[in-house]
Amino acid sequence: MIGAAWRTRSVLLPALLAGLWLISGIADAATPEAEVKAAYLYKLASFVQWPANEGDGAFKFCVVGRSDVAAVLQQLVRGQQVDGRPLAVEQLNAARADAAKGCQILFFGRGPDTARTLLGATRGLPVLTVGDRNNGTQGGVVDFLIRDGHVRLAIDRGDADSRHLGLSSKLLSVAVAVDQ
Amino acid sequence: MSASVLQRARHALFEQRWITAALAVLLLATSLLLGWQMERRESADQLRQVNVQAQILAGSVAGALAFDDKATANEYLSALRLDESFRGAAIYGADGRLFAGLATPGQALPARVTVHPPEIGGRKATVVVPVIQENLNLGTVYLTKVVEPLSTRISRYAAIGFILLFAAALIALLGAASAAAAAANRELQQQVLAREKAESALRQAQKMEALGQLTGGVAHDFNNLLMAASSGLELMQRSKDADRRQRFAEGIRNALERGAQITQQLLAFSCRSPLQSEVLNVDRHIDDLANLLDHSLRENVSVRFSIAGDLWPIEIDVSQFDVAMLNLAVNAKDAMPQGGQLCITAANRPGALAGTDAVEIAVEDEGGGMGADTIERAFEPFYTTKGPGRGTGLGLSQVYGFVTAAGGTVSIVSEPGKGTKVILLVPRSHEQVDEQDQATAPPPAEDALQGLRILLVEDDPNLNELVSEMLEEQGSQVLRAASGAEGLSLFDSNTVDAVVSDMVMPGAIGGLDLARQLRERREGFPVVLMTGYSAAAGSAAAEGFPVLRKPFTMAALTAGLSLALRRAG
Prior knowledge:
By secondary structure, chain A is α/β, with parallel strands linked by helices. Chain A has helices spanning 3-9, 13-27, 32-47, 67-77, 97-100, 112-121, 157-162, 169-173; strands at residues 48-49, 59-64, 81-82, 85-92, 105-108, 128-132, 142-147, 150-156, 166-167, 175-179. Chain A has a single domain (3-179), classed as Response regulator (Rossmann fold, 3-Layer(aba) Sandwich).
C-alpha cells in the first residue's frame, strides 16, 4: 500500500546504492548514504519518546547488517548523552534476537529474514525499529526510503503506539508516508 | 472676585506672547515625548515578536532540518512571507551551512550566522536562534523583519500629528490675536487719554477765548467808568458849590457800583470748580447774564430778552450755565456778521421732558442758519464751521455736556438762511431757592452799630483804615488788627461785641480759621467775614458766617453786622 508508487519510480536506485556499498566495502570507507542514515538514526532519538520506566544503563543503538552505518554512528554518539544516559552502538544479527529487546533503536540495514525475526522478537516492546525499504527490510516503526535522491522517512504510527513510543509531530511532519 | 481673578489670569496668559509660545512648545514637546515612548515600546514589541516568530520557526523546522527535508523547510519559510514586515529568513544546519532560505527581493541572506538575541539595526529587527531538539543542536534559524514599514508608522502618526500641529497653531494664533488685541487696546487707551487731555486743554482754551472776548469788553467799560470817576473827582475838587460836589460824588459812586457789578460777573465766570449744582431762578439770573452778554457782543448785535414770569427754579451749575449762554450768544453773534437781533427766551414747559416739568431756555439768532448735516454734527466736540483760529468746536459740546449733566436735553431748530434756534430743556427743581441775600433781611436800624466794640481784622492797611472809618461813622468803637493772630490776641485781651475780618490774609490764621476759633471761645459769637474771592465766600457761607463781598457799601456792612448780631441773639 505504501510501496507500489515509489518502488517503480526508484527502480534504479537500489542498484546504484548497492554498487556504492560494494565500492565502500572494498575501500572500507563510509558512503554518503551510510553517513546520512547513521545521522538520521542518531537524530531520531531526539524525536521519539520512550516510556519513562524504560531501564537505566546506556541508550542503545542496534544495527543489523550495516557495519558501515554502525561505524559512522559510533563516531556520532561518542561522548553524547540522551536524557543523561550514555549512548552505545551495538551490531546485531539474527542469532542474537534476545539482545534486540534491550535496544532503544533497532536498524535493519540488510537481510529481510533477519529483520523479520528481530521484528517478531521485539513486537510490543518499546524499541524503535527502523527498516530500509530499498534494502528490503521494511516494516519498522520508521522506514528509510529513497525519494528524489533523498533519504526519506515512512512512519507506522500504529506500530509506534503498540510499542508505547511517542513520535514528535515534527517527525511526522517530515514523513513522506504515515501509516495509522 | 474669583471671576475677575480668572479673567486677569486669562488676560495675563494671552497678553504674554511668550507664555502662549511656551504652551504651544510644551504641547508639541509632550506629544513628541509620548510619541517617542510609544515608538520605543513599539520596537520592544517588535523585537519580542521577531524573537517569538523565530522560535516558532526553529521549532517547526527541527524535523525538516534533522531529516534534510528542504521542501518542508521551504513550506515553513514561505508561510512567513504572508507577514508584510518579513524581509528574510534562513535555516542553517549544525555545520553552519545554509540549508534553506527565503528573502524579499533586494534582501541578502547572510552566508553564515551566529546565535544572537533580537536586535534592531537599520530599521530591521534581526534574530538568530538555535534549532534544538531534545538537547540535540540541529542548526540555527535566522529571521529578519522591518521593525514596521515606514509608511505604516507615518500613516499612524500623520492624523494625530496633524491634530497636534493644528492645536499648537491654534494656541499660537489665539495668543497672537489676543496679544494684538491687548496691544490695540493699550494703544486705544493711550489715544483716549491723550484725547481727553487735548479736550480739556481745548476746553480751557475755549474758556480763555470766551474770557478774552469778555475782558475786552470789560476793559472798555472799566476805562469808561474810571474816566467817569477820575474826571468826577477832579471836577469835585475844583468845585466849591456843595450841590455840584454832591452831584459829582453821586456820579463817582455810580461808576464804582458798575465796576463792582462787572467784577462780580468776572468772578462768577472764572469759577473753575466742576459741576456745582445749585437751585437757581432763571429769570433773576438772566438779568445778571444780560450784563455779561453786553460785554461780549458787538454793538451791531442787540439782545432781546423774553422771560416768562414765575419761572420754575432749576438745579444747575451756574457758572457752566453762564458759559453755555455765552457760547450760544457768541455762536449767534458769529452767525450774524452783518449784525442782527439775538433773542433769549425762557418759559415753563410742563411735562416736556419725558413727562416731567421743564424750563425751556432758547437762544435764537437771525443768522445764516444751518443744514441738516451740520445740525447732526453740531454737538460733536471739535466740529466747527468757523474759520481756522476762530472757533474751537467745543462751544456746543459744552452746552450739550452741561445740559445733559443737568438731566436736560438740547436741540437745534434751523434751516439755511432762516436763523438758528437752540433750545435747552432743563428739568424743574422742586427745591426752594436758597435765599440768603441781604436784600431779604429787614433793613437794619440807623443806629444798629451805635456803641458797639468791634474788632476789625484786615491785612490791607488802606482797607483797614476805610472800613474802620465806616464803622466809626456808625458810632462803633473799633479795635484794629492786621492779622489773624493779632486779632485773636486782641480778642482775648479786650471786650469785643463783634468781629469783622478779612478772609484771605497772610499768616497761619486766615479769616475763616479766626472765625472758627472765636466760635470755639464763645459759641455763636457774631463774626462777619469780608472777601473779594467768590470761592472763599461760598465756604464761609456754608459754615453760617455772613459774608460781605468786596467791594461793599456801608449799608451792606451795617446789614451784615446786624444779621450776625441777630443770629447771635
